[in-house]
């Protein structure tokens, strides 16, 4: 499929948004950005860069994207860093830190950092700044990790590198640590034209549901998430069972798992045990899943639930809101930024709350429809890729004039 252009997004977000981007970009002609991350495919960051890099180029900003190189040793270390930053307990020996630095230094030798703005994504290439302290350009660290409870040892090691940057970007104020540099908030964003989110033919949706044996005889309540304790799939089943005493519905759990993830096997066993042989609970496991099928499951759902107990942002929430689904979400992490209780969905704090939410939304379809409509608008305003483009343009302008309180733009 041909990559979408700004013209294609105009159809989705309206001409004003695209015009605003063009005006902002006109103040930044010939400026350049380099994005650096650790993988070209897989994961939300790579997915977002694939979309955003060509669009920024189309706006006249010269954007390049470099991927740092490493082997299993390096990526095992950075995976441990990632988990530890998200709060997992771990203990790192000194040689682990030295190995991490050696890989960063080698990558630094191979990348040219001549652009006006360097955006380093996540912890893997974070230490590149170490060899670029006497620079003329601006460096920003974009953190996509939930940093609300970082492991102190790994944070003690990484923080001095972060503070060598000109600024840092976090996905939520809840995750932003105390730092002596400027901090900005960028929400993650979804691409309305991707296979995961684009409009689908009703016939295709029916076919997918039929293919996986999900009858459409009553309301479908769906959670789409990795089988992970923090996503609380067991709590979802408990809430569904409580609600079903009062309202007729089906539950669909959809998840994918990495082939080598022992954790997800354990939680799947618990999920299956909780579901028992209930014919109204459908548990699907993909490895990996297909984007258009996920899209179809979301569109076929009468209610989408994301009952997380801890959460970075939960792209699944934006994806479902965009599709005008009534949402029930755990009041954690980035979910309350997307679900405003009683306006764009329902926030819950317990199994009982989730069960009440299911009953409420099934019994009050007009209210559910209004929430869904408001939710769609909220995603349109805040969580689409066009908003990310605007944030990058504003970042360039802001860093140009970091000392000024107000930036005047002539139109
Ligand atoms: N997802 C998927 N297949 C699945 C489960 C999830 O494609 O079986 C997608 C989901 O649509 C979303 C992403 O994986 O785009 C998960 O992102 P999110 O921020 O919700 O959670 P994370 O897994 O990053 O904690």
Beta-strand percent range = 5-15%
Helix count from the secondary structure assignment: 15
The profile of the biggest β sheet is:
6 strands, parallel
Q: Briefly, what CATH class of the largest domain?
A: Alpha Beta
Secondary-structure arrangement, i.e. CATH architecture of the largest domain: 3-Layer(aba) Sandwich
Mean pLDDT metric? 93
Named once each, the bound ligands are: uridine-5'-diphosphate
The domain count comes to 2
Could you tell me the number of beta strands?
12
Q: Give the strand line-up of the largest sheet.
A: 2-1-3-4-5-6
Instruction: Report how far the terminal alpha carbons are from each other.
Output: 35 Å
**What is the oligomeric state here?**
single chain
Order of helices and strands: HHEHEHHEEHEEHEHEHEHEHEHEHHH
Helix content: 40-55%
Write up this protein.
- By secondary structure, the chain is α/β, with parallel strands linked by helices.
- The protein has two domains: 6-189 and 384-400, Glycogen Phosphorylase B (Rossmann fold); 202-382, Rossmann fold.
- It is 44% helix and 14% strand.
- It has helices at residues 6-13, 15-26, 44-58, 72-85, 94-110, 152-162, 202-211, 233-244, 262-275, 291-300, 315-322, 335-338, 351-363, 365-382, 385-400, and strands at residues 32-37, 62-67, 117-121, 138-142, 167-170, 182-185, 220-224, 250-256, 281-286, 303-306, 327-330, 346-348.
- Helix 2 runs parallel beside helix 15, helix 8 packs across helix 13 and helix 11 (315-322) packs across helix 14.
- The structure holds uridine-5'-diphosphate.
- Residues 196, 224-226, 254-256, 286, 289, 294, 312-316, 319 line the site of uridine-5'-diphosphate.
